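Lab meeting, action items carried over

1. Structure of the two-component assembly. Owner: GW. Status: complete.
Input record:
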Amino acid sequence: MRDRYPEPGDMTVRRLVELIGQKLLITPVAGETGYSRLVGSPDINRPGLALTGFTHRFLHDRIQIIGETEITYLSSLDQEARETAVRNLFQFPVYCFIVTKGFEPPAEIAEGAAGCDCAVFRSPRDTTPLIHDLTGYLSEVFAPRKCVHGTLVDVFGVGQLVTGRSAIGKSEAVLGLVERGHRLIADDIVRIRRTGEQLLGTGDAIMGSHMEIRGLGMVNIPVLYGIRSVKDRHPVDMEVRLVDWTQKPDFDRTGLDRSTTTYLGVRIPQIVLPVLPGRNIALLLEVAAMSFLLESRGVDVPAELDLKLIERMRETPGGG
Amino acid sequence: MYQKAVAVPNRLGVHARPAALIVKKAAVFGSEITISNGIEEVNGKSIMGVMTLAAGQGTELLISASGEDEERAVEELCSLVSSGFGED
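Predicted assembly:
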């Protein structure tokens, strides 16, 4: 199973350089023997205080960013003091150092790095945007994630996770949506990761754009429907769970009582949709997406209808 | 065919939530079920129909059923209505 993100356990300094080195514009300065170190956290640290000797709370298990403040401080020291300051840092097993804003790392850092197998990079980019890009990417790598059996489709911009037992008709319903111009993100296996309060869904890099339709086998969606029919990733905004129509249905008849479900600690609306021969599920999924859009703009159709009805009964007491 | 009249006791009448309770209960039975407010007669399993009755507090509803479980259907629906749907 391929994913566009490495497993957190595979996130070495080397992988970091391969994956976002170009975006960060980083080039190696020293310590290339430190490439196999594992990056174990998405956070970064500015080692300013540690340079001054206060290493009590030094967060060494972070990527260390040396910006203008640190460089200016180091260049204000005489050589002996500078060596001591840098030694304070290298006594810890840090992941790696990135010197920003195009500064030339002091010779003491390059030497210290080479001496303890710790990679040092430099980048011409400004410190804050570089930190944003770096932590943004690493947060996604380290985000809580799970795999869900279902199909993710973008319907009018609403990410619908369609779930339900095997062979209930998820793929057929989503094929209907693709036919109507909506976009498939993943079929059968949806990878969900949490970034902040949002759930982001992706599919497998190879499998994601294929669907299995029982009786037809594997079909390639973008080959059949064009590139507009697929998408790499989309937020998971709601779940529609397809269930068998039973003899004693207990389905929501009004839409007044909304149920929710939780993935990775994020709560999203859930609709339980009974499947019955003759029901056009693709059409119903479209309506569910449009209702979601209305609700997210504060329009509550069932509650409004209920209020109108109560008003009518008040005007004509005794019925009629 | 079995039928029985029942008055709507709750203050807000048969609005959306009570209507949903009625149609869910009605759907349990195999019998054909109709509900009338004296002016209109609707299908007891259709929520839009039951809401159209606009049966406010005090409205007399005539519940009719025909089928194998007609008597039980009417009795259970009548006791649901006379319970006030758990509302005041």
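2. GW to write a short summary for the group page. Key points so far: Chain B has a mean pLDDT of 94. Helices of chain B lie at 16-27, 47-52, 70-82.
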